[in-house]
Amino acid sequence: MRWGQDRMDNDNDQLMTPAEVAEAFRVDTATVTRWARAGLLNPVFTLGGHRRYRASEISDRLR
Amino acid sequence: MRWGQDRMDNDNDQLMTPAEVAEAFRVDTATVTRWARAGLLNPVFTLGGHRRYRASEISDRLR
DNA sequence: TAGGACTGGGGTAATTGGGGTG
DNA sequence: CGTGTCCCAATTACCCCAGTCC
Q1: Interface residue A2 vs chain B (CB under 8 A)
Q2: Which Pfam family, just one, is annotated for this protein (chains A, B) (predicted)?
Q3: What's the CA gap between A29 and A31, in Å, rounded?
């Protein structure tokens, strides 16, 4: 069990949609977008410009 | 793949807003905030510093 | 290619945090 | 000692619409 330890700058991590992150924090999707624009989250971008968030990063902040 | 790491005090739990908790106990939202600051509740924090309370914890204290 | 669902923006109301005070 | 209330600043929610996803 070592998926939460050795990586925080990689790409082989489960990705979450803005709606999923918003539901996890009990917050609006627009709020998740603000967090990303403020640099509080480091999302991966789709080629169309949509954000996808790393599940590891989310579960860390969820505590 | 288990993300919650079999914890019962972490995620995988519905969250409540301060207003919802206040309504459940029939108190002001300021009182709920005092309970949290006094350590009587263990809320999850949004990245903006707002508190979200675990529904399981609230329903427990409601008995 | 068409279509429904979701997202990224922006603007404006509503909620929340914190301190201080009855 | 616990709670309700008033204040202000910050954060968040809800509204729109154009663009993206699948």
Answers
A1: no
A2: HTH_17
A3: 5
Q: What is the pTM of this model?
A: 0.86
Q: B30-43 pLDDT, tens per residue?
A: 999 999 999 999 99
- CA of A54, C1' of C16: distance in angstroms: 27
The protein footprint on chain C, as nucleotides within 7 A of a CB, is 6-11, 15-20
Domain locations along chain A? 8-62
A30-50 confidence digits (pLDDT tens)? 999 999 999 999 999 999 999
> What kind of fold does domain A8-62 have according to CATH?
Multidrug-efflux Transporter Regulator; Chain: A; Domain 2 (1.10.1660)
